[in-house]
Design a protein that fits this description.
heterodimer; A: 90 residues; four-stranded parallel sheet; 4 helices; globular; B: 153 residues; alpha/beta; Mannitol-specific EII, Chain A; five-stranded mixed sheet; 21% strand
Chain lengths: 90, 153
């Protein structure tokens, strides 16, 4: 399974989401590859992605997709992330 | 052990406590000024950080009260760098959940790979903790360094 974390530069806030998503996935025993990207990489990465984790500012940029778009409020709150990931994957 | 320390040092020049900023732009510029004063970046990096927010919105406000200002690695970055600005009066960035901002953490990475390593370290500091509150209340650069677990030099 592939999960994208999306932000403006692909190296900052998406990086936080990546490490915290990996932490939560490990806790849940879910095997997935998490890729941090910026908006310019969306087109090439979106095809086989199952979930996209991002902030509210980037939802419009994603457009129509079969992937679950999960909007994260507090990037450091792994409990929030776990709740939302379980919902998206469950 | 990694060859590079987890996070770069935080010299006194990179810490500004109880600053006054009239707008998110001023707050980010203060943090950019602190990065430049520490020698980690050129003055232009502050402009790059502001532009990221102009282009993509206030997404850098990643947790209640905390803005993680940053831009891409480039010629304005001399070396990895970290700066902390705490605001005397909280400043709205226009974020739907995490406004207003009390602490701006500015980050510069010498490369994209390094930048990703640095944000992972930062995540370790702020996960499930009251680090933002403690930073907002910090009264000295030493206290800030203790919270972040970084040296002065």
């Amino acid at each position: 399974m592939k999960i994208l974390t999306l932000c403006g530069a692909g190296i900052g806030t998406s990086g936080i989401l990546k490490v915290n998503a990996e932490r939560v996935l490990q806790r849940l025993g879910i095997d997935a590859r998490v890729v941090a990207i910026d908006v310019s990489m969306l087109e090439s990465e979106l095809d086989d992605a199952q979930v996209i984790l991002t902030g509210p500012e980037f939802v419009d940029a994603i457009g129509s997709t079969f992937a679950d778009v999960v909007v994260v409020e507090n990037y450091f709150d792994t409990a929030e992330l776990q709740r939302k990931l379980e919902l998206a994957l469950g | 052990m990694d060859q590079l320390p987890a996070l770069p040092a935080l010299p006194d020049e990179a810490v500004v406590l109880g600053a006054r900023a009239g707008s998110w732009r001023e707050a980010v510029e203060l943090a950019g000024g602190a990065l430049a004063a520490s020698g980690a970046t050129d003055a232009g990096y502050a402009v790059d950080m502001v532009r990221m927010i102009e282009e993509h919105g206030p997404y850098v406000v990643v947790a209640p009260g905390l803005a993680l200002a940053h831009a891409r690695p480039g010629p304005a970055v001399r070396r990895d760098g970290l700066a902390i600005v705490t605001l005397a009066e909280p400043v709205p960035f226009g974020h739907p959940y995490n406004d207003p901002v009390r602490v701006v953490l500015a980050l510069a990475g010498a490369s994209s790979a390094r930048h990703l390593q640095l944000v992972a370290e930062i995540a370790n500091i702020f996960n499930d903790s009251d680090a933002v509150e403690r930073l907002a209340q910090a009264a000295s650069a030493d206290e800030v360094r203790e919270i972040l677990g970084v040296p002065a030099a």
